């Protein structure tokens, strides 16, 4: 084959230079035609759109073309011309073809269209080649880039929090343990406990559930930081909203109080949604057509409207007066369920909602206590279809109050001594929040199951890929 520089299909379709000689490489989505001519739909992952390759069968020979079936990978040199068919602006008249890899039609699992999402989860190594997962993964990339751009452009510093930790930020205890101890002969102390002095770190260590505590340390030195990395929860939950491994974005800002924290969360989410609409529109159109006919209107609505702000107490009063029959009863002091959050957003206010001032008993130890002694300066951002998408708070900066809360909850202060010590030396008001990256992608793509917005989902009994 003549050596030509490869052009991505997205670039060809964006600004086609007709009657020019081009090279494209990609995977065959379909091949159709008759005895004289074949039409190959080729996709290279750069766009949801395929480019049509027109092949003169007599020129190449049927035997040579036989391996070009769905899933095969090929390189094509040819003439880019204006397409005569509907739904496409350009096509390539093939002059030279190289077959990189065939895909046996009898065993390649993506030969047919219309596979269920459940089936595709069983072949996570191949599902990125489908239109659906190509679109989702491109959106995921753009959202990751937009997150870094947002914070960089506003003077935040990307802070790398540890994945292995000895502390439990949320106090939930559902953590994956990290150890080099021999499983068959675990050493024990005289008291019968596991002897962690024999372990690699000399103490019990786990995979992190959050980078927040470390991000706070960064903010109390650099002013404004954010983490963006994997976190882990060992909850045995097989639901469309839970993963054992997922990604979190956690900004922390010195001198921000709860109002500034809410302002940041709202501005951040609107920026990301606008970025998706501006940079992922073709993929969003496809996902809307296939999975969620209201997707783009919903994204625009959230981006263009102010979020409603009210207290948890006001929210509970609205829910109790609604006359709605909820699966989980609601009363002051109960943790709100997704059905309660979505009622406030989708039926009552018909806008995103930020709830604040939750009862301290249902929130984490580090949240700043209000003067009433009953509530803390927590905030949850609630979205349509998702419920809670962001959880955050103003952090308790008073050492005595924080220590009293740690003792009240029976926590081990020794494992977070370094966190507590920041309240002794130059303490300052500060706030932050956590955004679950996969929940963001669920909302932006309109997908229904969190397993379908991450390349390789980690769930109970599933770590195959």
Can you walk me through this structure?
The protein has 465 residues and is α+β, with helices and mostly antiparallel strands. It contains 14 helices and 16 strands. It has helices spanning 9-14, 57-60, 62-65, 117-121, 131-153, 212-222, 258-279, 281-290, 295-304, 312-321, 338-349, 399-408, 417-421, 437-445; strands at residues 20-33, 37-43, 51-56, 73-82, 90-101, 157-158, 164-165, 177-178, 205-207, 224-232, 245-254, 308-311, 353-359, 375-383, 387-394, 430-436. The strands form three sheets. It has an eight-stranded mixed sheet, with helices on both faces. A five-stranded mixed β-barrel has the order 1-2-3-5-4. Strands 7-9-8 form a three-stranded antiparallel sheet, with no helix packed on it. Helix 5 crosses helix 7, helix 5 packs across helix 8 (281-290) and helix 5 (131-153) packs across helix 14 (437-445). The longest helix is centred in the N-terminal third of the chain and has 23 residues, at 131-153.
What labels describe this entry?
five-stranded mixed β-barrel; 24% strand; elongated; 16 strands; alpha+beta
């Amino acid at each position: 084959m003549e050596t030509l520089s490869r052009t991505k299909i997205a670039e060809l379709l964006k600004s086609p230079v007709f009657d020019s000689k081009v090279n494209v490489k990609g995977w065959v989505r379909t091949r159709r035609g008759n005895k004289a001519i074949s039409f190959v739909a080729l996709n290279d992952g750069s766009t949801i759109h395929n480019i049509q390759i027109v092949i003169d069968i007599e020129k190449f020979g049927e035997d040579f073309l036989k391996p070009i079936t769905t899933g095969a990978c090929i390189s094509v040199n040819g003439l880019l011309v204006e397409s005569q068919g509907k739904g496409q602006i350009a096509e390539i008249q093939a002059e030279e073809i190289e077959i990189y890899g065939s895909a046996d039609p009898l065993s390649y699992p993506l030969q047919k269209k219309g596979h269920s999402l459940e089936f595709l989860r069983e072949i996570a190594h191949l599902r990125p080649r489908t239109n659906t997962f190509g679109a989702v993964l491109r959106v995921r990339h753009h959202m990751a880039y937009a997150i870094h751009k947002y914070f960089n452009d506003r003077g935040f510093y990307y802070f790398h929090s540890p994945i292995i930790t000895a502390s439990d930020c949320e106090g939930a205890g559902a953590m994956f343990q990290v150890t080099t101890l021999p499983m068959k002969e675990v050493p024990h102390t005289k008291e019968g406990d596991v002897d962690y002095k024999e372990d690699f770190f000399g103490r019990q260590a786990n995979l992190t559930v959050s980078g927040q505590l470390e991000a706070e340390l960064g903010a109390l030195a650099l002013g404004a930081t954010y983490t963006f990395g994997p976190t882990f929860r060992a909850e045995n939950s097989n639901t469309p909203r839970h993963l054992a491994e997922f990604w979190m974005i956690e900004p922390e800002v010195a001198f921000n109080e709860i109002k500034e924290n809410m302002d940041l969360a709202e501005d951040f989410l609107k920026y990301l949604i606008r970025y998706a609409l501006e940079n992922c529109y073709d993929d969003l159109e496809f996902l809307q057509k296939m999975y969620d006919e209201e997707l783009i209107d919903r994204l625009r609505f959230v981006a263009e409207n102010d979020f409603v702000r009210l207290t948890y107490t006001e929210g509970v009063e609205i829910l109790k007066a609604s006359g709605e029959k909820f699966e989980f009863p609601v009363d002051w002091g109960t943790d709100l369920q997704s059905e309660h959050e979505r009622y406030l957003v989708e039926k009552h206010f018909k806008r995103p909602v930020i709830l604040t001032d939750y009862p301290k008993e249902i929130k984490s130890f580090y949240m700043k206590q209000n003067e009433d002694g009953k509530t803390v300066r927590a905030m949850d951002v609630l979205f349509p279809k998702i419920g809670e998408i962001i959880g955050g708070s103003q952090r308790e900066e008073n050492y005595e109050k924080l220590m009293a809360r740690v003792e009240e909850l029976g926590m081990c202060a020794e494992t977070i001594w370094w966190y507590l010590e920041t309240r002794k030396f130059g303490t300052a008001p500060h706030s932050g929040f956590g955004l679950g990256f996969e929940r963001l992608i669920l909302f932006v793509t309109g997908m229904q199951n969190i397993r379908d917005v991450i390349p390789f989902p980690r769930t109970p009994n599933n770590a195959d890929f």
